[in-house]
Amino acid sequence: MTGEFFAFFILAICAIGGAVFMIHFDRVMHMALSLAFTFFAIAGLFFLLDAEFVAVIQILIYAGAVSILMLFGIMLTKHQEKEQTFTRTKLHQWLSFLFALGFLAILMSVIYLAPFTLPAGDQSLYSVNKLAEQLFKSGYVLPFELTSLLLLVALIGSIILAKKEEKE
Amino acid sequence: MQITSYLALAAILFSIGLYGVLSKRNAVIVLFSIELMLNAVNINLVAFSKYGLNPSVTGHIFSLFTITVAAAEAAVGIAILLALYRLRGTSNVDEYDSLKDESDLQK
Amino acid sequence: MRWITLTILLLPLLSFLLLIGGRKWRSRGLVAGIGVLTSYGAFHLSSYLLMNMIQKKTQVVISMPWLTLSDQVVHLGIKIGALQAVMLVLVSLVSCLVQIYSWGYMRDDERFPVFFAYLGLFTFSMLGLVSSANLLQIYIFWELVGLCSFLLIGYWYYKPEARDAAKKAFIVTRIGDVGFFIAILMIFWKIGSFELDAVSKAVSTGTISGVWVTWIAILILIGAIGKSGQFPLHTWLPDAMEGPTPVSALIHAATMVTAGIYLVAATFPVFLASSYALDIVSYIGGFTAIFAACIALVQTDIKRVLAYSTVSQLGYMMLALGSKGYVEGIFHLVTHGFFKALLFLAAGAVIVSLHHEQDLRKMGGLWKKNRGLAIWFLIGCFALVGLPPFSGFFSKDEILQTVYMDGRIGLFVLALITVFLTAFYVFRLYHLIFAGTSRTEQKNTPVPKVMMVPIAILGLLSTLAGFVQFPKAYFSSFLLQGSKLASLTSEAAPAWIGWVAVLFSLFGVGLATLLYWRGYQPAKPRVGLIGWAHRILEQKFYIDQLYHYVFALPLKGLGYFLIGWDRFVVGGLVRLVGLVPVGLSRIASMLQNGQTQTYALVSLIGFILLVIGVTVGRFFS
Question: What are the boundaries of the signal sequence (chain B) (predicted)?
Fold first, then answer.
């Protein structure tokens, strides 16, 4: 029972719990908040994996920007107070659950059947300097710039899509 | 500490997200679930970058790209949702059925 | 001679075709003229044929190949022997007279030409029936006369009783027809020919064994029973009186119902070869005679009394044939044709003069108002009762003698009692119509002259027809010329039989006169044995009810069961077969509901099944 395992255990419980609550809460706002909680827990897991930069980005982008975006989305559209799951057929619900479970079972069996017995990488490999070096000096520059282009396109596209259409 | 634990956690989160995508009525929640699935993938990437065959920061770089694309996706997704909401007056996924051939399956 | 024979047949057919084509013609004179002239033509030529045959003692035979069945050739043929010539004359004469009568009787009817067309078709069919040389052809015409009977009984199809009666006649005679048809098949199987001559030859040479002869005879008899209204298939004949009265006279008294008698006579060698068959014929005939006479005692419908009388007289003819009295049966057939047609036509005249009233209880006193009709009716009654010198006396007397000589004393006694009963009901009928005072408020309408002419002719014939056999047996010698049946004529019967019969008749007439001279007495409440008997007779021995409960209801139940089976079991299976693809395609179309989540779920299911399918084998190898 190492400290790392203990921390992983707590964070995993938090992440799964947040996700489950996201599925099971009745009110949309509560769902958004529980998902943000999951994002925070995942950020914690990234810290545990020596990915400090990614963890911070996770908190900034996901727990911050995306969640806020979602909240705007929630507020700009009208919702019933409660999520009604019963208008969809029961059969659909059950089949979804069953096959999501089946998918999980397949994944689990693959994961536990695979012989993963590898040593952990050295902590010194994962500094932010190394990351920047890798990113900008070994061929990831072009994709990085394309990402910015993608973001620009997404920005413009979102504005055009979300803009109110003018009355003709 | 083994990689399997992280992979298992990611699998669980992914499946929960999958279930949410398949069964939730509210389009916003469906988008949430998609984000959750993407996050599960990120966990995998980062976990492999530490416990994988060739430990390096490349996994981190990939997850950065994923996060970027996910952010763009969320923005466009919300924008599409708003446009659809204005068109149909609802944010329920089960009322978006324009994939169906409207001419003969009106019922 | 051949052309004359063919012309006899084709004239009524021509009349039928003309009139059914011209069924919208308004001119009644033209329509009736066509009918009467064609049937008169047929009668004239038939008489010529008959005269010719009496003088030259020849036969007319026309035959042409029709079907070739492997090695057998079925012929389409006409053969006019003595019996056939007599039948031709009888049928065409009565048909002609009835058509003249119908001119008056049906004058107010909407479908006047159709009626005459049907009569023409009937005449053609009946003439065809009696002139056919083989059984297959007889069967065709046999069914055709059945069809005409159906059409004419149901002529007033807007009356439910007429509809029911027509259906009943068709269905009940069908039972007999099936028997006849089986007999024909058996004959072809065993003898290899349909020809009447071949049949009699095969029987006389003993080609077919005794058991088969008996069976064939019995089956032919069943056909005859159906057509001639013998017990137990008699129930349709009284109901057939729902048809117009000329039809009753022509078809259901004088001609068609005698087709059964004719059939037995035409295949008489078969019957002679089997004593069982003869027994059955005579017992059925004798029983029917007294049975129908009993029912006739209490009927209150003028036509029904006559109908039961017809059944009874047909029973006499059967009795005669069963007692090997070939000539006697035919003789009675002819005389009965005349006097029963006379009675029916006269009854029709009575009905017309009383505004279509048929209930005997509302008649009476017609003697004072229509003396001529009363006299002709009386002649018919005398003939039917069998008082000398009217024709019925001779024919009935001969039947009684034959039965006595044949040795069935029980049947002889029954026949004698029937003579008494006949006399009683006939004169009950007569007195109820003509004696006393009128029991209805309506005034009488005069009977058209055109209706009285056939009545007068038939009256004369009924009076005189007996003298073809008296004082010398001209009729038998003609009928038996060149026939093997000639050997049947036996030694003379004791003369006292005739006297006893006349005595019985007079007794019956007297009793009826005593009881009904003052007309109809309103029924006193009848009690005890007499009341009981009266009720049974009124209900015609409950035969109709018996058939209803024993045959009609179970068949109806079976019908309902089959409907249920068809609707729920068969129909259910059919619907199930239809529902399975509908259900499957409904499931398939539910998948195409246009919702992304459903599509995603289906993809997921497909993916998982694919993974399982690809990898599952690994765990078992």
Answer: none
